C-alpha cells in the first residue's frame, strides 16, 4: 500500500520550472491523461478514420464491379466489415478519450469562452459520432444487394462522415494549442509534432485525390456501377 501511495504522490507532484521553483496548479497526472486523450484522438481520426473512409469509398466500387457473384460477395463482406471495424475502433477510442478529458477538467472543459473552439467542436463530434453509428446500422439493415442506385440516407451518412472527419482534422491542432496554453512557463509542445501532422494531412489529401481520380476514371469506363 505504501508503494502505491508513493506512486500516487509522485504523479500528483507539480511540474518544476527550469529554475527549480514549482507551479502549484500544474498537475502531472492530469497532464499525462490529457496527453493520452490527444494521442487516442490522433490515432482515431488521423489514422483509423481516413482508412475507414477509403475502404468504404474505394473497395465498395471494386466489390460491385465484379461479375463473379462469389467474389463480389466476398469483396462486399470485406469492405463492409473493415469499414465497420475501423469506425468501431474510432468510436471506442473517442469514448475513452472523452472520459479521460472529462476526468481531468470536469464540466469546465466545455466552457467555450474559456477554452476556445476546440471544446465546442469536440463536444459536437462526440455527440455526432453516435448519430453516425446509428445511421450506419440503419443503412446496413436497409441495404439491398440488387439496388440500382445509392439511396438518400446513404448520401447523408457519407457526407456527414466527411464533415466529421474534416472537423476533427481542424480540431486536433486546436487541441494542441489549447494544451500548450496550459503548460507552465518554459514548456511547450515540440514544433516537430505540428510539422509531422501537417505533412501527414497533406499526404492523406493527396492519397484521397489520387484514389478519387482513379475511381472517376473507372466509373467513366463503366467498370463501376451506379451504387459505388
From TrEMBL:
One of its GO terms (molecular function) is heme binding. PROSITE patterns: CYTOCHROME_B561 (PS50939). One of its GO terms (cellular component) is membrane. Residues 1-215 form the Cytochrome b561 domain. InterPro entries: CYB561D1/2, Cyt_b561/ferric_Rdtase_TM. Keywords: Electron transport, Heme, Iron, Membrane, Metal-binding, Transmembrane, Transmembrane helix, Transport. It is a multi-pass membrane protein. It comes from the Eukaryota. Its cofactor is heme b. It holds the Pfam family Cytochrom_B561. The chain crosses the membrane at residues 35-59, 80-101, 121-143, 163-180, 192-211. Signal peptide: none annotated. It is found in: Membrane. This is Cytochrome b561 domain-containing protein. It comes from Rhizoclosmatium globosum.
